[in-house]
Amino acid sequence: MESKKFLDVLIRDYMSVLNSGDYADVILRIGDDEHFKEFRAHSIVLRTRSPYFRTALSDRWAQKQDNVIIYEKPNILPEAFEVILKYIYSGVLDLKIHDVKVILNILVACKELCLLELFEYMQDYLLKNMSEAMQHNFSLVQNITSQHNNTFPKLKRFAKKIIDHNPHWRKLTYGMPSSNGESLIHLLYQ
């Protein structure tokens, strides 16, 4: 017996449901007060694809209004979450039009949302395709590695390599208070 895969049709249908908002039972308020966006989604899809949402949207934790779960996530950029939400529904990741700041935010969000396969891919993608952009945004890379300590080992090695090959590393950390520069050295060489 022969089998045929119709993954493109499946992806199209799931994306159609996401884009239309039909049957959505979750409103995700993403971003902070100054820059936020609401996304309508389906708890069954979110729970199936993300261990984080499996817990966060459970009856024990979720807040409901009129049978709709209202979930707020102020520490993720809406642009980053939109990419992640499309990935959750389709399994397709589109990074072509995003700058390194958004992509770094996607990386942090992937770790927090327990999307581990995407988290590993994102680190490799950044190092392979955006190393120059990360050098130009070195203070952002440093902030991420220091705030999350050992969460991003590949980025930490990248930052250490930049400092090892550039004796004038303080130029790379321009605008960073000297205490952050000192903590950077401690972080990278511990």
From TrEMBL:
Q: Organism's domain of life?
A: Eukaryota
Q: Which SUPFAM superfamilies match?
A: POZ domain
A Pfam family hit: BTB
Fetch the SMART domains from UniProt: BTB (SM00225)
Which PROSITE patterns does this entry report, sorted A to Z?
BTB
**Alphabetized InterPro entries for the sequence:** BTB-POZ/Galectin-3-binding (IPR051481), BTB/POZ_dom (IPR000210), SKP1/BTB/POZ_sf (IPR011333)
| Entry's transmembrane regions | none
> Where does the BTB domain start and stop, copy by copy?
24-97
Q: What is this protein called?
A: Btb/poz domain-containing protein 19-like
